[in-house]
Write a structure and sequence with these properties.
With 244 residues, the chain is of the alpha/beta class. It folds into two domains: 184 residues, Rossmann fold; 50 residues, no CATH class. Helices cover 53% and strands 12% of the residues. Strands 2-1-6-5-3-4 form a six-stranded parallel β-sheet, with helices on both faces. Helix 8 links the parallel strand 5 and strand 6. Helix 2 packs across helix 3 and helix 11 crosses helix 12. The chain is globular, with a radius of gyration of 18 Å.
């Protein structure tokens, strides 16, 4: 069951330090509108979130949804913390000596590895690009992880691919803390620009992403919220039961 972290990165740093010292398999996931929609429509996806050790609330719309309902499918927290908010604090994780970065193209992956080496200079950081992900590359990545034996794995294959990989392969992977970080690898590398902080405070990152990547995010920004509303309404009607 996920751990209800109340404050920002300091609480997550403490939790990661505990996981690293423990040396077992743990998962850290992020909740956004897309993941909420998927937890409502996909049983396997929902179980992954329910069984995760830490689930971070990532995105102003999900924060608003939580505040309005006090409830959401899967375990979500009542504060906001995205991947790019806590990755710069990895140098504070006690005992962290081996980090693996899986995902993005070769250039972005190498850039993220270099950035993490600056952030955690005492750690060995290695990378495995995820461009063209498929069964053969997945098998190669699993074998690579067994060779590297990392303590912390940043899995940035995009949603829902990274979550599907965890559903399929978590039992085959070496013990580590597996963190689904989406596009944070490209952001760490500087390939993908972060929204200005003032937009973040206003909850308008979606507008920034829509401006920079209209084809990639148009459906998620403009279409998926309506799907989510329909799913939430359908669930509410189901909970009320038939009208007598």
């Amino acid at each position: 069951m996920s751990t209800p972290l109340r404050c920002g990165s300091p609480s997550l740093v403490a939790e990661l330090s505990s996981f690293v010292a423990e040396g077992s398999t743990r998962t850290v996931l992020g909740h956004n509108l897309h993941s909420v929609t998927l937890t409502l429509s996909d049983d396997g996806f929902r179980r992954l979130y329910e069984d995760s050790d830490v689930v971070l609330l990532d995105g102003a719309p999900v924060l608003w949804l939580w505040g309005r309902t006090g409830n959401a499918e899967g375990p979500v927290m009542d504060y906001r913390l995205g991947s790019t908010d806590w990755l710069p604090a990895l140098d504070q994780v006690r005992g962290l000596e081996r980090i693996a970065v899986i995902g993005a193209g070769p250039e972005a992956n190498a850039g993220a590895v270099a950035r993490l080496r600056d952030i955690v200079p005492d750690a060995c950081v290695s990378g495995f690009p995820g461009e063209g992900w498929g069964p053969a590359l997945e098998e190669a990545a699993v074998a690579w992880l067994h060779r590297e034996q990392p303590q912390l794995v940043l899995l940035g294959l995009g949603m829902p691919l990274q979550e599907e990989v965890l559903q399929r392969r978590l039992g085959d992977l070496p013990p580590a803390v597996y963190c689904a970080v989406g596009g944070a690898i490209e952001q760490l590398a500087g390939v993908q620009k972060l929204a200005p902080r003032w937009l973040g405070r206003m909850g308008l990152e979606w507008a920034w992403r829509l401006l920079l990547h209209p084809r990639r995010v148009a459906y998620r920004v403009l279409g998926e919220p309506w799907v989510l509303l329909w799913l939430l309404a359908a669930r509410r009607l189901k909970e009320r039961g038939p009208v007598r």
